[in-house]
Fold this sequence. Notes:
469 residues; eight-stranded parallel sheet
Amino acid sequence: MASFKLLSDADLLRIDQASRALLWEVGVEVHDERALEYYEKAGAHVDRVNHRVRVPDHLISETLKKCASSVRLYNRKDPEPIVIGGDDVYFGTVGIATNVLDINTDQYRSVLTQDLVDIIRLSDVLDRPHYILVPATPTDVPSTTVDLVETKALLLNTSKHFITEAQNAENCRRTIEMCALVAGGLDKLVAKPFMTMLVTLTSPLHFRQDVSDLIIETAKVGLPLFIESGPMAGGTGPATMAGNLVCANAEILNAFVLAKAVNPEVPLVYASWARLLDMRAATCSHGGPEFAMLRVGTSQLAKYYGLPCGGGSVLADTKSIDVQLGMEKMGTGLLPALAGTNMCTGMGLFADENAISLETLVIDWEITGWIERVLRGIEVTKETCDLAVFKEVGPGGDFVRSAHTRENYKKESFLPHIMDRGYLALDKDPLAKEMRKRAKKLYPKLMQDYKAPEIPAEVIAGIDEIIAR
């Protein structure tokens, strides 16, 4: 149950009203003619001379009425989907990293396709992440097809639900074609979608060509869209966090209007990376308290509209796997989870979203397990408060040897895999068992359980043909 809130009902109403006013009084810059036609038919005011779309209040309300309160995301192994909505929380990876901290050399280098495969396979074998947003960008393939190579890597190396990306309308269609080939047909893919399309909006209030392409092409066939906005407070968004929330909310609502104009039944997830521009470092901060606070705010807004939500979480600015990494990832993971952010997306990444590593993903697996234990709360029932065990042990006794302890210890406790809870050995090197080394040691043991999805050779050949066109 979501228990952490920063905004009152009055605050949410004010932000909603300001967002609607922004979309009407200022509008959004849109250059794509197909998108302009959809907006116009839906009832928006379109100024083709200035490429400006203004969305009236009633159209936003009509769009929200068409949105479902949950989205069902399937995988290729289990028949039951994960249901995104309400206060349920799931954790996932996140992408765009072009650098990897090599597990063997401890040095940074460019991400290669094999690195992407390794991260996907580790993500597949762990119980968290629950879903995989393409976690890295390979630099050893042509830029024109890197998005297709990413989707191929996901299809061949995980059975989990994944969120992928595309650069333009053509690659979006080819991505969907690849997934439909694996599913056994587009109708089967749409009926039980094991993929979602990522749409990243540009702040402030600007619709890129690829954004229009992805929304239109994906919505036409009815596959889920994960639509995110990430204005930087003081940079691409207002310096106040409230103003930044207005900007992000308006951009997402505007994108929803287009998606529902294309297909009223398209599944949508309201997501955000609203964040802060650090004026001293001239960088975007993903690890500070403001990032976590803004995620609470956008999640509250999504719930205000009754929408499934997601966004950045479990992220860090630090360039090292150090104390700062643990501090930032726990903070940016715990607050959104307590707020009921349905899709907490960020496992594996650090260095301001510029780097990824296998060890970091293992550490994040541990951190999200800690958070999940908090979310389970304390079960207060007649059985958990029963006095029988006190009568059995008596005053001055101990509970270590009681059957009650054996029956309840594991289900009540978070049992870590790489956190150090052992005795302090004063004669040992204090850095000899640091968390990163423990994560590196555990990695090969975890991978012993990996099993690749079974995909016929002719389907793989078909995927390669689609990429090579």
